[in-house]
Amino acid sequence: MALEFTKRRLFLSADKKCFQLFSFTQDRADASIYVSSPDFAKIKWLNMSLKDGNHQLTVTDSPGDGKLSVHGSGMTKITPNEHELVVHGNYLLDPIKQAAGARHLFTVQLAEPKFLPVSPALNRASDYLINTTHFAPIVVIFFAIPRVRKLTVNFQVSFHIDDLESMPPESGMGSFELLLHNVFWFAYRTKHMDEWPQNPHVCYHDGHLVPVLIGTGNKQFRAEFRSPTYELSETELTISL
């Protein structure tokens, strides 16, 4: 029987401890996905905007505790409302066709995880754990994948060799189930990711373009917005960045 969870807690294991990173909740009616975090009030939001015909990346402080809302219609925003960060994009659920869509959710450069909830990791059947043998700064990219059939996700991403310390890059991937979508994640490290940033940095866009964060040194990074391709066979979905 397929698993269906309205809410999932996401943890990262490190040094025999399991730190909570996020909580994901999905609405059955319109497939909207809501994401909260113990560090939500500390997040620096990265926003790509268009000014004088040029794209630029701006940084906005979090309005306080809240959540990231990725609505079924494709509109994405921060709640409480931050109007400058409202983006309209690819749907999660087409209300006319009743068709579920695959889309990028958000990309995060994590600050050092430290939150240990009163109810520890794996205390609930809905908890999901990312295991790591090397507790070090990472970036995680999240996608929503429709649960229309049992699919294996094949994720392919390329980096410039000068941005990597090793080939292949240090990375991992996996997925967990919500009601109408699976959340697929890809975690990776590039060169110059030696120190945890003071604040987590989160970037989302229209669900079509995918922000990829590359370390540049001194706790800094650059953002590349890439257009993924999706290839669907009977049993496999290939996402190429």
DSSP E strands, number? 20
Can you give the mean pLDDT?
91
Percentage of β-strand residues: over 45%
Structural class: mainly beta
Largest sheet: 7 strands, mixed
Low-confidence stretches: none
Rg on CA atoms, Å: 17 Å
The portion of residues assigned to helices is under 10%
Ends apart, CA distance between termini: 32 Å
Gross morphology is globular
N-to-C series of helices and strands: EEEEEEEEEEEEEEEEEEEE
Count of DSSP H/I helices? 0
Q: Structurally, how many domains make up the residues?
A: 1
- Strands of the widest sheet, in order across it, are 5-4-16-10-12-15-14
Your description of this structure?
Helices cover 0% and strands 48% of the residues. The strands form five sheets. The protein has a seven-stranded mixed sheet, with no helix packed on it. The chain has no helices and 20 strands. Strand 14 (171-177) and strand 15 form a beta hairpin. It is mostly beta strands and 241 residues long.
